[in-house]
Amino acid sequence: MAREITGHAGVKRQITSSPAARSAITEEDQTTEHSIQAAGRISSSARRLSAASQHGEEHSAPAFAASRHSRSLTGFGDPRELAHSDGIMQTLAEQAHGKTGIFTPSAHREELSEAEQLAIERRKTSFKRAALVVAGAVLLLFIAWVLAFSPALQVSMKDVTVRGTNQWVSEQQVRTAIKDRLDRSLILIPNKELKEPIEQIRTVDEVKIERTLPHHITIHVVTRTPQAVLKDVSGKLTVVDKNSVIMGQVKQPMSNAPVISVNEVNQALRTDAIQQTLKVLSAMNPELRATMSEVSAATRDSISTKTKDNFTIVWGDASQMPLKIDEVKHLLGNEGAMGTNTIIDVSAPDRPILKS
User: Fold this and answer.
1) Residues 232, 209 within the same domain
2) CB 50 within 8 A of CB 25
3) Are 139 and 91 members of one domain?
4) Gap between the Cα atoms of 53 and 92, Å rounded
5) Domain at 310, CATH number
6) Domain region containing 62
7) Contacts by 347-352 with C-beta closer than 8 Å and gap 24+?
């Protein structure tokens, strides 16, 4: 016959009246009772151990030996008599102070700390580099603004000086040519923009630009050199340079350029005779050329000039001009070399001929 009983810890079970069943139930109750008592003792011992660790209590070696003897006799150790382990005490002490020594040994914590410090240093370095880049960019923008838009570098017409002008190129011509290229920063005005309009002036041969900070420009103008004056049938006098460029007109013959008689100026400048004559004259230095008064050029290889002292020089063509000029200078500069002769023929410079 089965009946219900209440065991330890309020556990209800159905049991039977059979002797074998009652014996099994009794053994089970005894085992359960022993387990509960052992668990209670272990829990109580753990609480005492924790309390002892907080007050710094230490167990002696005899206590540890006694506990071993107790376990050998009864088969169970008394937790109250267990000797404290240095490792356990260190762990409990670290936990009491908020440290997690169970999972992270101190050596590993030092390695992590070094890695973290290295990461921090790297972040600081990256930040410094970024700050330097930003500062450099700001500085460059400021410099660009100063160079491009600062009033301190603005060039106006009053900041321009023109040199090298003469009767062939006036200062006003140069200023008029560049008037639309100014009123900007000195840095933003290329030399080419200033030179191009000035070189369009017919009588200008070369232009040089000189800059002076913060906002001054000096323009050096080199004009073409007159080589001859062409006199047409109407008596009009036109000045030309070595490249057959018309420089302008004059009312009187020039002292440093001989006169060439032609029918019509533009047509004559296209002939070989006049072009060779201009080459002959341009080969002379200004002093020698200034001694010439007239030029005759019937053909390209029959060019002759007449000096102001009434000597006639037959040049032939424009070949070997340095050698021809040396012969003429020697004969004209040596008193008595000419005698009564008035003509020097250097068309063959290695065999000059004197004629009267």
Assistant:
1) no
2) no
3) no
4) 7
5) 3.40.50.10960
6) 16-96
7) 347/301, 347/314, 347/315, 347/316, 347/317, 348/316, 349/320, 349/323, 349/324, 350/323, 352/327
CA–centroid distance for 142 within its chain: 16
Residues 133-191 have pLDDT tens digits of: 998 988 888 777 766 677 888 999 999 999 999 999 999 999 999 999 999 989 889 99
Please tell me whether residues 125 and 209 are part of one structural domain. no
Q: What is the number of domains present in the chain? A: 4
- Using DSSP's 3-state secondary structure scheme, residue 257 falls into coil
- Has residue 1 been placed in a domain? no
CB-side exposure of 145: number of CA atoms within 13 Å?
A: 6
Which uninterrupted H or E stretch holds 18?
none
What does 121-180 look like in DSSP terms, one character per residue?
Answer: HHHHHHHHHHHHHHHHHHHHHHHHHHHHH-GGGEE-GGGEEEES--SSS-HHHHHHHHGG
For 110-146, the pLDDT digits (tens) are 556 788 888 888 888 888 888 899 989 888 887 777 6
User: What's the pLDDT at 155?
Assistant: 94
State which residues of the chain have pLDDT below 70.
Answer: 1-112, 146-148
Beta bridge partners of 314: 304, 345
pTM (2 d.p.): 0.57
Task: End-to-end CA distance of the chain: give it in Å, rounded.
Answer: 179
